[in-house]
Design a protein that fits this description.
With about 325 residues, the chain is α+β, with helices and mostly antiparallel strands. It is about 30% helix and about 30% strand.
Length: about 325
């Protein structure tokens, strides 16, 4: 994926830029130029906010089930039908408080047989760095060793006990609208759609600085690519080196992410064909078993509005038994 020099400079500054002003300053372009480039790139892809989920007490849940459910528990983010040499697979994903993962699986089991599942301890998405631009398949082993150097560290601050409604609204907006969405813009949208009470700009600013920004890990950009041009793959790895392998896979150019649990990880992305031999070589070189799958159908839901799970009076999470529909996107 090639870019103009000014665009490339801006993208390399993106992971460490939380606002458009920071992006302009870090990439040494004018604020007007930064805004224009972001607007141009947004027509071809999406800017993404990558959080440290653990700071908010959240996790990403991955489950394989025996069929595509007709209804899904609240907090589901998507369902994918996948095919491999072993047959068809149905993947369900959710974003939710880690404390409610068991409740989610119980609810999902009412709609389909749950074959296996795990919660993530880390989430890594590709990020633009000059060191990663020309990585070849032959350099993958080195990338496995160096991956922690390239991925911004997780926060060392104490996690929030339980985020409050304003925190979760702002997090929702960052995940849905991108890293440059302003707190006032986010809350105004949520207020219109959910009938939330009015909140001052000063209160929003405090919650963002104190409770949301510390969990910001980095920002990135995914360019949209047709699955007819590059197939969407899912690579499920199990074993003692699953985490190391998954981190490195997420850094291969230019669109991919890894959901990493204990001894298990799922990579999803669109890799150029020259990297596909790695999928056969990895189990031979590392202590993992692996299943390579290709996407047949993608069913997506919106970012869940997690404040609905808050027991505000007792400052704790509560499960909401609510089933949601999904919409197909081929």
């Amino acid at each position: 994926m090639g870019f103009r020099v000014d665009v490339e400079r801006l993208l390399y500054a993106l992971p460490y830029s939380r606002t458009l002003r920071e992006l302009a300053r870090n990439s040494k372009v004018s604020h007007t130029a930064a805004r224009r480039i972001v607007r141009e790139l947004s027509t071809e892809g999406a800017f993404r906010f990558v959080p440290d989920d653990s700071f908010y007490g959240l996790t990403r849940l991955v489950a394989f089930v025996d069929r595509v459910p007709r209804r899904l528990p609240f907090t589901t983010t998507g369902v994918r039908s996948l095919v491999s040499q072993e047959g068809m697979h149905t993947l369900v994903m959710a974003y939710l408080p880690e404390a409610l993962a068991g409740k989610y699986v119980e609810s999902l089991s009412e709609e389909a047989g749950v074959l296996e599942w795990f919660v993530t301890r880390d989430y890594v998405a590709w990020l633009p760095r000059p060191e990663l631009r020309g990585v070849s398949p032959g350099e993958f082993d080195g990338l496995v060793d160096r991956a922690p150097e390239y991925i911004p560290p997780r926060t060392n601050l104490r996690p929030l006990a339980v985020p409050d409604q304003i925190d979760l609204v702002l997090l929702w907006g960052k995940l849905l609208m991108g890293p440059f969405a302003r707190p006032t813009e986010i809350y105004s949208r949520a207020s219109r759609e959910e009938g939330l009470p009015a909140v001052s700009k000063q209160v929003l600013s405090y919650h963002y600085r104190a409770h949301v920004q510390p969990g910001w890990r980095y920002s990135t950009y995914f360019k949209y690519i047709s699955s007819e041009e590059l197939p969407f793959v899912a690579y499920y790895v199990r074993g003692r080196e699953a985490e190391r392998v998954a981190r490195a896979l997420a850094l291969l150019p230019n669109l991919g992410m890894s959901l990493i649990g204990d001894g298990r990880a799922l990579y999803m992305g669109q890799l150029q064909c020259r990297y596909h031999t790695l999928f056969a070589e990895i189990p031979q070189s590392y202590g993992v078993e692996a299943t390579l799958m290709f996407m047949k159908l993608d069913l997506r839901l919106d970012v869940p509005r997690l404040w609905r799970l808050l027991d505000a009076e007792h400052r704790k999470w509560r499960w909401v038994e609510e089933k949601v529909e999904v919409r197909a996107r081929h």
